[in-house]
Design a protein that fits this description.
Length: about 270
């Protein structure tokens, strides 16, 4: 399987996961989006040195993955893409924040190391929360929610179309890559000298495919408006879930559960 097939399979895998049937999948889309935004806001609001307060927030992705049956390997594979940015962003703290925060036995832990670990943990939590939302909610439902609430307007339609036709673009690139390999003899990848021509041709073919897709949409009555299907109704079960989750997250934000448990164990 080529890298293009692997990319398309990765995109389709999350879409297939979002069509599952679990207590998390059956939640109202607005409730899941609100819960994710609340989790992100509270996670980011932690001070950079409060690493112990962030640890209990790992329960959220763990419980959501368990209840929804979401496998962890696809999420970890996508997490690897985001971690290098956090790694380079937090590495500077190791050099500029050298004051000692506390001692762990004979080891002195600097404030830079504590801040670096906090940034990495925040990145892990935020990326996992977003990936879990995508893995349990069809992307078209999220775009329909945003459009129905007039939060993004035309941008909601653009997001939906872009997400839907990424696979089409990948297939186009796959056909060009196959043709290139068959005509290049022993080459196993695109040569650097041919990369500009390859990308230019891909851009032109993408424009041509976009015109054909748009013509097909116009023939089927497209008038520039997004017409989502029926969304899941808001039930009492959804409100109870959101209220309980919000209360727990706010409690863990302002009460350091890790320190409380640590003191209990010490006693």
């Amino acid at each position: 399987m080529s890298r293009f097939h692997s990319a398309a399979a990765g995109i389709d895998h999350l879409e297939r996961l979002s069509r599952g049937d679990s207590p998390v999948h059956r939640l109202n889309t607005g409730v899941k989006v609100t819960a994710t935004l609340l989790f992100l806001a509270l996670t980011i609001s932690f001070p950079s040195k409060n690493l112990s307060g962030l640890v209990p927030f790992l329960l959220y992705p763990a419980c959501m993955m368990s209840l929804s049956g979401t496998p962890y390997r696809p999420l970890l594979a996508r997490l690897v893409v985001a971690l290098p940015f956090a790694l380079f962003g937090g590495a500077s703290n190791l050099f500029f924040m050298r004051e000692t925060a506390f001692h762990l036995g004979a080891l002195a832990v600097s404030e830079g190391l504590l801040s670096f670990a906090s940034i990495m943990l925040k990145t892990l939590l935020c990326v996992f929360a977003v990936l879990i939302l995508i893995a349990t909610t069809p992307f078209t439902d999220i775009c329909a929610l945003l459009t129905s609430r007039r939060l993004v307007g035309v941008a909601g339609l653009q997001l939906s179309l872009t997400y839907r036709y990424i696979g089409v673009l990948v297939d186009e690139a796959q056909r060009m890559w196959t043709a290139y390999i068959l005509r290049s003899g022993v080459a196993k990848a695109i040569r650097m000298k041919d990369m500009g021509s390859f990308l230019g041709q891909l851009l032109l073919r993408s424009f041509d495919r976009a015109e054909r897709v748009y013509s097909a949409m116009k023939c089927r009555g497209f008038a520039g408006r997004y017409h989502p299907g029926k969304s899941r109704p808001l039930r009492r079960y959804d409100l109870v879930f959101l209220v309980i989750l919000a209360a727990l997250l706010v409690f863990m934000r302002f009460f350091n559960v890790s320190l409380f448990i640590g003191r209990g164990i010490k006693l």
